[in-house]
Specification:
Shape: elongated
CATH class of the largest domain: Alpha Beta
Structural class: alpha/beta
Largest sheet: 8 strands, mixed
Number of domains: 2
Number of strands: 8
Helix content: 40-55%
CATH superfamily of the largest domain: NAD(P)-binding Rossmann-like Domain
CATH topology of the largest domain: Rossmann fold
Distance between the termini: 43 Å
């Protein structure tokens, strides 16, 4: 993969926008100087300026400068942003990547009123360290458009191209999922403290163990239960612990949490609503 020679505007320098910016610049395929990040409170982006990024509060100017526009605002801010930048969008030059939860490609096109190339993406905050799981979707997009989006997000983790109808579920499983797995690691570390470890040691042990478990699945492409079987012996301590967790609803709680998040994500954006 070669370095991408395009200017990128990230409209929305919140948590996910900052994660994307840092992840892209840290990937060695993108330069900080080719990325501009915008936010209304520009003083909150001072750290980016020190790293060589361009920063600003003028979204229209950022669009004029850029070739690739990454929209990373909150759902309730999207309508106002699209109204602000639509006159600057040039379909012959621009492509848009939206990471706004719940907003469909069709809804964005209707607001812009132009046939511009749009890719919908759902990364997670691990993009900042090059470990994102990003789902991509694009209706009626060219292979080149999808290819550019994949090149961007492949540089900061793994990508999967899916049907747009699955983008809301992807939000729950991948974007919200970061918090779910972090909470599981925290719980494991608290268990470690209760059985005798200092807090910092317990957190290290739990975090590395979780990383190892995920790496086993990604490297061998095995089903989780095949790996579970390797550490559960008859009348052993592992199966005793697992059964106790299941008796208390461990798997059920995680499944219900993901389903609930998906239901909420489907209602986050409304084309008729905007932030006051």
């Amino acid at each position: 993969m070669t370095e991408v020679k395009r200017k990128i505007a990230i409209l929305g320098g919140g948590n996910i926008g900052l994660s994307i910016a840092n992840g892209l610049a840290g990937s060695q395929f993108f330069k900080a100087e080719d990325i501009i990040v915008t936010r209304r409170r520009i003083e909150l982006l001072s750290d980016l300026l020190e790293k060589g990024f361009n920063i600003g509060s003028n979204n229209r100017l950022a669009v004029q400068i850029a070739d690739i526009i990454i929209i990373a605002v909150l759902p309730q801010q999207l309508n106002h942003l699209l109204e602000e930048i639509k006159d600057e969008i040039d379909p012959s030059r621009h492509m848009i990547i939206s990471v706004v939860s719940g907003a469909t490609i069709g809804q964005i096109k209707n607001k812009i009123s132009k046939e511009v190339a749009i890719v919908r993406a759902m990364p997670n905050t691990a993009i900042a360290i090059g470990e994102s799981m990003t789902c991509l979707s694009a209706s009626n997009a060219s292979e080149e458009t999808i290819g550019i989006a994949k090149q961007i997000f492949d540089s900061v983790g793994k990508t999967l191209v899916i049907e747009e109808s699955l983008m809301v579920p992807a939000t729950a499983l991948c974007a919200c999922g970061i918090a779910f797995f972090l909470r599981a690691i925290r719980a494991a570390s608290q268990g470690g403290i209760e059985i005798g470890f200092h807090a910092e040691d317990a957190l290290l042990m739990a975090s590395q163990t979780a990383k190892g478990a995920a790496s086993l699945l990604l490297s061998a492409e095995n089903h989780p239960e095949s790996e579970v079987d390797k550490v559960t012996t008859p009348m052993g301590c592992t199966i005793s612990g697992l059964n106790q967790m299941e008796h208390n609803g461990f798997s059920s709680a995680l499944i219900k949490g993901i389903v609930t998040s998906a239901e909420k994500a489907a209602k986050l954006y409304s084309p008729g609503k905007e932030e006051k």
